[in-house]
Amino acid sequence: MGQQQHEHVRVAVIGSGFGGLGAAVRLRREGITDFVVLERADSVGGTWRDNSYPGCACDVPSHLYSFSFAPNPEWPRTFSGQEHIRAYLEHVTDTFRLRPHLRLEHEVLMMRWDTEELRWEIETSRGTLTADVVVSATGPLSDPKMPDVPGLDGFPGKIFHSARWDHDYDLRGKRVAMIGTGASAIQIVPSIQPEVAKLTLFQRTPPWVMPRVDRKISGAERWLHRQLPFTGTARRGLLWGIRELQVQAFTKRPNELGLVEQLAKANMRKAIKDPALRAKLTPSYRIGCKRILLSSTYYPALAQPNVDVVASGLKEVRGSTVVAADGTKTEVDAIVFGTGFHVTDMPIAERVVGAEGITLAEAWKDGMESLRGATAAGFPNWMTIIGPNTGLGNSSMILMIESQLNYMADYMRQLNLLGEGSALAARPSSVHAWNRRVQERMKRTVWNTGGCTSWYLDASGRNTTIWPGTTTEFRSATRHVDLSEYEVIRAAARRKPVAATSGAESSSGTKSAKDTEAVA
């Protein structure tokens, strides 16, 4: 490698959802303009572009589900729909002049670390380029998971995943099977129920559902937020503070969630009068163990005469007949899968080859691990946004993304201080130490003790997705890069990493390049 001439950039950002666009804005604010944003689709938006199913909306309040540096006083509802969030991301792209950096329809096929040149060689569907640093912002909700169901290939009707909705297929008057009861399904069910002839919901595990207190934001409120921006900031701060106070119950005192369970059951009783149906819909695990869902229309839809709830997963398909694990058989015209995404086995990991010649997927074969949710051992100058153990169970992921952007910014400052031809590689000992602390804290959380199986857990039952603390704690942990957690690799001495030990601190709060050279 290193023989051919390709376009070379300082930074290659992968993905153009919240993480990728946020990284692009932050790079520009740091004075770095030599970067590209590689996006496999033909427009920005990430999961809010891909998920356009009926009823798609966010379950985090609008004013908290936006960048702090790009407040939106024009949110139309307290919980915004997909079209409004996607429009917001397009607005961010234009406001911060990101379009010249976009490389749309450039799917990343492979990324390989060049140990001689200390850079990444990136093969895309439109050609090859190289970059000093890669920021992977593909997100955990980008690749739909389709179950391997016997007989599915022989189904004569329509099949699609909620994240790949076929808007050309008319569901009116059709018999539809909805597979799954996650966040997408509880929005789809009430949206399509009035128009389909028959809707059969296949439910392996019932979710806990709380009312979604959504309303239009008045013109007066929007005017106030436009004229007095601090009012929007205060609104965001209040929403954030309430959720910070809730974290203790999820992470340290799960038994305190019993009252919330009673509220959820009351919400169900209000709409579901049939005791048998209520029994099917009542979870047997602690609320919060799986994602708590918000909807005021899901239960009323399930109570309608054209809806059947099968308390079992889909086992097989025989022609146009879908068969549940409990033996229930149903004739359908269409199957909609709301079966989630590849979260703990992200496909992008198979396309990243590190310094030792192995893929990130191979490095993570026993479970995802990263340093402060950002960097992985064996993959120099590679960072991820929304990495392992950065997910949240009760608040806005934008808060976590912005914390990781702080870390990325300081990472770039450190590389600049170290000078051209330098790279930072997370020490395996640092990665393991960080993850041991995270997993130790995870032991008493509701996600590990609540008695459920969720997409938060990997194949071995380890929680590699959720952050077991407050967003404030995470922001503090990612404020600066600690060079003692990294090996400094220099082009002049490529085969001999420079040990970063204690020394004076730079203006960003970590050891400077000069100090590192001195100890070396």
User: From the helix content, strand content and strand pairing, which structural class follows?
Assistant: alpha/beta
Overall mean pLDDT = 92
Approximately how much helix is present in the residues?
25-40%
What shape does the CA trace take?
A: globular
By DSSP, the count of extended strands is: 21
Summarize the biggest pleated sheet. 8 strands, mixed
The proportion of residues in beta strands is 15-25%
| Poorly predicted spans | 493-520
What's the Cα radius of gyration?
Answer: 24 Å
N- and C-termini, Cα separation: 29 Å
How many alpha or pi helices?
A: 15
Short description:
The chain is an alpha/beta fold and 520 residues long. Helices cover 30% and strands 19% of the residues.
